[in-house]
Amino acid sequence: MNARNILLASAALALAGIGLAPVLVILAKSLLFEGPAGLSYYQRMWESHRVWTLLGHSAAVSGLTTLLTLAAGLPLGILLGRSDLPLRRVLTALFTIPLLVPPYILAVLWFNILGRQGLAAAWYFGLPGCVLVLWSVFLPVVILLVMIFLKTVNPRLEEAARLTTGWPGVLRGVTVPLIFPGVLLAALLVFLLSFGEFGVPMYLRYGVFPVEAFTQFSAFLDFGAAAAATLPLVMVTFGALALERVFLRDRTYILRPIAAAGGPAVLALGKARWWAFGLAGTLCLVSVVLPFAALLGSVSPASMREALARAGDSLVRSLCYAALGATLLAVLGFLLGYLIHNRALRFWRSVDSIAVFLFALPSTVIGIGLMAMWNHPATGFVYGTPLILLFGYLAQYAALTSRITVSA
What DSSP letter does each residue of 358-384 carry, written as one string? Predict the structure, then answer.
């Protein structure tokens, strides 16, 4: 094995050791190391009625969030990606903002808008509030992916279709069917991300599996019950990615940008141009501008000084850890992406699958796995230092930098 392959294999082993091993430790420790008691946790969980309540809650949050993001994201992606909609670049940037902010922050902002009492506040704490927040957070995922996949459509096919029908017929008969595998991939991604979301349901006091796993581990120090609660998360993530690999991966792999003279045809909205702009602008105003305007309106110079005085050190640490984590992710992602793109080693597909699996896996599972693996006296040099945070970053987000490297 030459030096290049040794380096690439080391990167693959690092991903497996940092990300996959902690997940396996959870399962092994709960089933083997705990003895017969380990199996009893799983038995009690599946025999109780609470597991079905949690499963119903998780499915409701993920299903409704996915349906609503598709219903709004597909037309918005087409409007922002292919039409002559006014200020579409500005709207695209605004719609992307919630994706860059922790969902927990948006949940707090909406709580400040709706108030602490009254019918709106009572409605907010529960399923409607979770769906509202997660819809605004993950809507840009569908919008951006639709805009990207629209660039893979051969414009000559659309031009040929326009000889017999207008743009609505072209979209229904040509454009949307061609990018449909990519739309399904976006829906699958939104479903997994919302299924594993922890911060929003915890804040809104709505029981789902990630919150249950975290509560059992942190509040009751019951590792066996926490491991049992993570099993459905792992199973759903693995099953969804298995479906993606069997039915979608080969179909989405062929979706690549097409270079064409003059570029794709622009969807001319005509008289509906300003109506469409009004609808898109209203949606942006409600889902993005309103909560962040409420945040800015509540901030004063005195509160900013107090926040910096109390949390200034935390802010500096967060920036430093983020910068170091991003640097390590860029290096690891480049090596993994190079390995996958060039198929340099036989197990390149497994590397890609592990990275995507860890990205889709709820952060609660990865966090509990890292604690189970490294919370020992002999490994205190990891668990008691920022290394444990960096390991979490690398495990969760290596798929992003590796996929970007592959596409570039």
Answer: HHHS-HHHHHHHHHHHH-SGGGHHHHT
Name beta bridge partners: 83. Answer: 267
Least-confidence region, from 151-160, 320-329, 348-357: 151-160
Rg of the chain (C-alpha set): 23
How many CA within 13 A on the CB side of residue 25? 19
User: Which range is least confidently modeled, 5-19, 148-162, 272-286?
Assistant: 148-162
Q: CA distances (Å), 198 to each of 78, 140, 170, 398, in order?
A: 31, 19, 41, 20
Compute φ and ψ for 30, nearest 5 degrees: -75, -30
Q: Which residue has the tokens 């949050």?
A: 61
pLDDT at 50 over 80: no
Helix axes 88-96, 127-150, angle to 10 degrees: 130
> Cβ(152)–Cβ(83) under 8 Å?
no
Contact 150, 77 (CB under 8 A): yes
Rounded CA-CA distance 237/22 in Å is: 16
Select from 133, 242, 244, 114 the least CA-distant residue to 198.
Answer: 133
Residue-wise pLDDT for 241-253, tens only, equals 787 777 766 555 4
Longest dimension (CA), the chain: 73
User: Which residues have C-beta within 8 Å of that of residue 19, sequence separation ≥ 6?
Assistant: 354, 355, 358, 366, 394, 395, 396, 398
- Non-local CB neighbours of 91 within 8 Å, separated by 6+ positions: 80, 85, 280, 281, 284
DSSP letter at 98?
Answer: G
Q: CB within 8 A of 356, min separation 6: which ones?
A: 241, 399, 403
CA 401, CA 81: separation in Å to the nearest integer?
24
Contact between 182 and 145 under an 8 Å Cβ cutoff? The reply is yes
pLDDT at 296 over 70: yes
- What is the torsional sign of CA 336, 339, 342, 348? negative
- Quick one: which of 359, 50, 102 has its CA closest to 215? 50
pTM above 0.70, yes or no: yes
